[in-house]
Amino acid sequence: MPGMPRFLYRLLLCLCALALLSGCVRATMAWTKLAPNGDAARPQLLESFEGTPPVETAEEWRTRRALALREALQREVYGFLPDASETRVLSHDVINSSAFGGRAVLEEYRIAVTATFNGVAVESRGADEAMGVVMNVALPVRTNGPAPVILMETFCPRWMTLPDPAVAGSPEEIDEGSGIMTYIFGRYICTPPVEDILDAGYAIAAIYPGELVPDDKKEGPPQLRRLSAGYEDDETRWGAVAAWGWAFSRMVDVLDGDRRIDPNGIVAWGHSRYAKAALLAAVFDDRIDAVIAHQSGTGGASLNRDKPGESVKAITRTYPHWFAKAYANYAGREEEMSIDQHALLALIAPRPVLLGNARRDVWSDPNGAFRAGQGADPVYDLLGSEGLEQDRLDEWKPEADLAFWIRPGTHGVVEEDWPAFLEFLNAHFGGGADETAAN
Ligand code: GCU
């Protein structure tokens, strides 16, 4: 604003945003307890469930209990995913053969996705049918072999996730770090440290989920309904989180079989609402080898029962398009749910999951996410993994299959988050960087 000092302008922007983001305002007022907050009354995952006997073997888990829990999560929280899916590549181009200071080849795919519910197949090119759903992929040049890939869904347009003017829709000049989002939600909220990630040997694939299903309570539902035309029950019709989770799998469809990508190194990464989606994606797609779910909160890793922070009532009121309508019916009577969010983590076991958190992000309920990790732990054990290897929220063990990261501060993706994410990835996938070539 002309005439207004820069600091005053920023302060004003900051105040406006805080007022708008009431959830996050509340997040700054309290601190999460660093020891687990009692033993929550979450259902025991290996005990009797819906009249079936307890589970004692890995085989019983896979063939019986996992199916029932997946069904319950869809019925009570997310809505049902398609019975079958398909992805068609409409175009595939190299858009910059020497991107990010010569570190990567940058490519662009346009895809059409098909969801089949009850035999009715609907193909969509996304919210903007003319364009198709766009996926950008940065492939590191200096690697020893096929690179593990980090699949990302982010809040900001694709050209901010992978900033390059060649990305479809990008303005000539990309503002990477001075916007209000970055100011409030941290340096990496829009743009991850792409060069560091590439140097560590990881490829990045990014979509903007709003290009498939808009994050809007008016515009989202028509697209969700269109894609699920064969599905009749409105109570359990899928919400946007399920569709965004499904979108991670459509990215895998495209990259699976690409010889430049490590088929055992496919990682779904998401922050907050997209962290909810990343977790759900891995529950339904075992081609996803690991998840980094940062501040996934309610409807993500945090338990619905005994909840400080965002309640089921609050989330389903403010974001009615995110979940099945059925989830809202449990507001205030969460103890009647047959499952809780620890089932989400258990259904990813024994694959590595990193739960990222911040001490003052009580809105996302880090303590509830930790207790969900504890609840999922017996399933990791059953499947031959140590799972959670910490007793408190602040005992960071990046090599654990259920790793819990907490830092000071609030909701966002800040400077110390990505080094932690990379530590976790390196502990599990070793990166693919060719050190000799890099020097
Ligand atoms: C809101 C919402 C959270 C969500 C977050 C985000 O704060 O209440 O559930 O995780 O937005 O996506 O940033």
Task: Please provide a written account of the structure.
This protein is of the alpha/beta class. It has a single domain (6-433), classed as Alpha/Beta hydrolase fold, catalytic domain (Rossmann fold, 3-Layer(aba) Sandwich), CATH 3.40.50.1820. It is 33% helix and 19% strand. Strands 1, 2, 3, 4, 5, 6, 7, 8, 9 and 10 form a ten-stranded mixed β-sheet that branches. Strand 7, helix 9 (273-284) and strand 8 (290-294) form a beta-alpha-beta unit. 49% of the residues are buried. The mean pLDDT is 92. The site of alpha-D-glucopyranuronic acid (GCU) has 9 residues, from helix 2.
Classify the fold: give the CATH topology. Answer: Rossmann fold
Q: How would you characterize the largest beta sheet?
A: 10 strands, mixed
Spatial separation of the terminal alpha carbons? 46 Å
Q: Work out the number of β strands.
A: 10
H/E series? HHHEEEEEHHHEHHEHEHHHEHEHH
Low-pLDDT residue intervals, each spanning 5 or more residues: none
What structural class is derived from the secondary structure elements? alpha/beta
Helix content: 25-40%
- Proportion of residues in extended strands: 15-25%
Per CATH, the class reads Alpha Beta
Average pLDDT reading: 92
Number of domains: 1
CATH architecture: 3-Layer(aba) Sandwich
